[in-house]
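Limitations
The structure tokens in this dataset are predictions for the assembled complex, not deposited experimental models. Users should treat interface geometry with appropriate caution, especially where small molecules or nucleic acid strands are included. An illustrative entry is reproduced here so readers can see what is and is not provided.
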Amino acid sequence: MAQIRVEGLHKAFANFVAVGDSNFTIDDRSFFVMLGPSGCGKTTTLRMIAGLELPTEGRILLGGDDVTSQRAAQRDIAFVFQLFALYPHMDVAHNIGFPLRCQGVPGKQIRRQVDDTARMLRIENLMNHKVSKLSAGDRQRVALGRAIVRRPKAFLMDEPLGALDSEFRHLMCNELRDLHERIGATTVYVTHDQMEAMSMADRIAIMNQGYVEQIGTPQEVYSRPASMFVADFIGSPPMNFLPLEGPVRTGDRAVSVFGARVDVPEVREDIPEGPFALGVRPEHVTLSDSAPLRGQVFGTEYLGTTQIVTVDMADVQLKARLSASVPVSAGDAVGISLDSRHLVVFGGKSGRAAKSELFEDVRHG
Amino acid sequence: MAEVVLREVTKRFGEVEAVADFSLSIADGEFVVLLGPTGAGKTTTLRLVAGLEAPDGGQVYIDGRDVTKAPPAVRDVAFVFQQYSLYPHLTVYDNLAFPLRSPARRVSEAEIRKRVGEIAELLHIEKKLENRATRLSGGEMQRVAIGRALVRQPMIYLMDEPLSSLDAKLRTELRLELKRIQMELGATILYVTHDQIEAMTMASRIGVLREGKLLQVGTPREIYERPESAYVAQRLGMPQINLLPAAALPGVRAPEEVKTIGIRTDHVNIVMANGAALAAQVHRVEHLGDQNHVHLNCNGHTLVTLSDPRQPLAAGQEVGLEVVAPLYFDASGQRIEAAAEHTAEITARGL
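Predicted assembly:
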């Protein structure tokens, strides 16, 4: 098992920058997720780590060794695409043992490693079954087994759960994470699905147009997003943005939204240029008759324990996550109150988060 | 718009009973969602209402008329499919106008202009009317496809997973739009999906299907809070309801015949204090942002529930559980109504 380091990694296709000057370290035994929309450079980065693509500039270190110029086969990495690609005519044991047979490993050792893998995946009882007869979940496990059996230094996975419907996908996320804890292999996982990233990752890198916008734990990127892009990409529903009258200055403890004063965590930098926005997560919005911020309920969506209430405010819509027991319906005029402790002020053309008390807390632990 | 009734409808394909003894009334102006996995008979039910399939038994009534043997054209229904199929060489306007220009309908061009304008406004695509259909984004195309159904005023709209081919963000947006449009038009809709969130957020009533059978029909709240069986209880709610054998929860004073106890996140509190009757160990905390899913080991069983993101919980930690008014199921999986004194007693003991 090994640490993975990416230093000044850059990849250009003619004039198009697919990955721009990327730097990060993936700790040994950790689960690292690269998250972003299609075309953000996440798959290209993964392919460079795998050795399937050569960088234009920069270095890749695997367990301290520079592997930048090594071919994929020399890197001791297992690459997992969609988890369903199995050989339908072989039984489970042969599917799992296949990568070892390709390497010319002796039969006795193959059997031992295949048995170990089966135990780890808890599929010992399926070893003689044809894969075509298996349930979807068991097929996923077999496909994983084929990646694990070689005991590589790292696993690279490119949207392995993309073909599954959402409920089953969440179940598989839990299973992958449990498996990761049992074998503790360094894993780099690429997805466009924020739920997968939040559910499994130790750390997430959010990518946008070739560049890494933020790297952090799921809680960090959710609670303290570095930019509007991150805040909008993470969360379901994502963070709300309300237009703000700028500029913002060091020491500001309140901002003006639709003419109403809203307290915010103390701002710790000057941002002279707009546009400005106030970011608020749906669970930090409550309805309050006396609040000066006003709106009209556009619709409610019942979710069992909670409901999502969408409120029209001038030209923006604000989503609130409230208890399902709060009586509210479309057309109601409501007051909006925001939990000041968790608000984020964004400013400038790139929509960067202003430094504030909220972010300072992180550095103090 | 009109009332639609299915009475004891059965449809077989060879040995397989795709729809079995299916009875359902959809009231005028109602949004009914059929929820079930692939193969539950959802799409077949829609096709039976549309007249694209003929039932082997039972009747279909639209607006009080028995249409069981009537061809699709005279039933006056509008169908929206999963994959939007627009005419790529036509503009958005002409795509929307197409159903009204059918020779069977004889709608004047002035009337067509008025209807298309209204629908385009409703769907927020009024600025795109002169665009070629191929020049639209996925979400716009699906809006036009829905608009092409809405431009007519049929007896009922039949929708087969119309949002499933869209990405998550657009799906969320159109979910809310579709519900708003349905309420504004007072439209009658029969909608099928395998997505519990679509069902819960849009439906006036949900019908839960399994293997061709309609297990329960009710408002989203009724189905969530008072499911008739353990199967139905598992269909709604994230995280999924925890089903534990009654024997594993000796502290919960369930009625005699209860074999399985269903615990939703609303039915359990995690407490730090020692001495809770039910001890558990934190296996993993999943940080999903607004919610933390806590995976617990409890007497050898796994239990997943939500916790407040501010509650400090870590893997390996020992905690206590308070179970409050859970759901009870008998050996066959049917729900048993807990007597009032049971619930009261459990709550009072904080158990």
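Some entries come with short summary sentences. For this one: The longest helix of chain A spans residues 166-183.
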